[in-house]
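Exercise 7b. Backbone tokens:
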């Protein structure tokens, strides 16, 4: 019977030997061939439990929970500051299957901060609050890293908007408060722009920079009918563009 030689693999020797080490339980620092290092608990040769991972190439460090080789549970992700040995926190919160999931705080470059729900690595799946570097603050619903659903944004100048968002823009019913002028706009928004609605005085006497004259009364035979027809047309366009389970209606 002829001898059949087992086919050779192209895997590095370190890959072939790693399964044979059968790491299990708490271990001291384990160094990979590429320079990455991990210190913590193992199960069946996979990171499992509490542990700290440092990726040499990116200078990123994760400290927290692991499940079968992936961040899962609660953990903190930090980045190495250039030219130093100091780490800055990038994210701390929930993880699932190696991705941000659940409640967590994310620190962007500069002073921007997000605190809220995450879904498979993206801001979304619930409520969240974002402090922008400009000084604006948004609080409301998110989906795939964008304002999506009900939400309120307070601008740095003191004005604010509360209403419906789609794909990061004002879309649907909303109210914009001009606190500096003492006026309020109520109506429909499309792609971030006001399309139809009413403008009225709102705390005009206490506003720091009120308009010279009050808003005059609009003389229409049936103002509500005109608004209703216009709103219905714009809402239909929005619902066609964003076919979601929470279809927008003309009611607040």
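Sequence design result:
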């Amino acid at each position: 019977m002829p001898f059949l030689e087992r086919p050779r693999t192209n895997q590095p020797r370190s890959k072939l030997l790693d399964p044979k080490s059968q790491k299990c339980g708490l271990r001291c620092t384990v160094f990979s061939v590429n320079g990455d290092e991990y210190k913590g608990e193992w199960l069946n040769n996979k990171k499992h439990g509490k542990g700290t991972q440092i990726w040499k190439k990116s200078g990123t460090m994760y400290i927290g929970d692991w499940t079968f080789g992936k961040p899962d549970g609660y953990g903190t992700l930090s980045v190495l500051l250039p030219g130093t040995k100091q780490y800055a926190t990038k994210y701390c919160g929930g993880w699932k299957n190696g991705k941000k999931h659940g409640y967590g705080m994310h620190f962007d470059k500069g002073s921007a901060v997000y605190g809220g729900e995450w879904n498979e690595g993206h801001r979304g799946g619930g409520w969240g609050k974002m402090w922008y570097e400009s000084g604006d603050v948004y609080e409301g619903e998110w989906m795939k890293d964008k304002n999506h659903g009900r939400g309120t944004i307070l601008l740095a100048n003191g004005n604010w908007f509360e209403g419906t968002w789609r794909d990061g823009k004002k879309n649907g019913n909303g109210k914009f408060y001009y606190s500096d002028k003492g006026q309020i706009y109520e109506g429909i928004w499309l792609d971030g722009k006001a399309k139809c609605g009413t403008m009225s005085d709102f705390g005009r006497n206490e506003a720091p920079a009120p308009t010279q004259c009050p808003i005059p009364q609009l003389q229409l035979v049936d103002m509500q009918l005109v608004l209703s027809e216009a709103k219905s047309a714009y809402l239909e366009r929005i619902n066609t563009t964003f076919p979601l389970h929470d279809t927008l209606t003309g009611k607040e």
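Instructor comment: The first strand starts at residue 25 and ends at 31. Confidence is low (pLDDT under 50) at residues 247-252.
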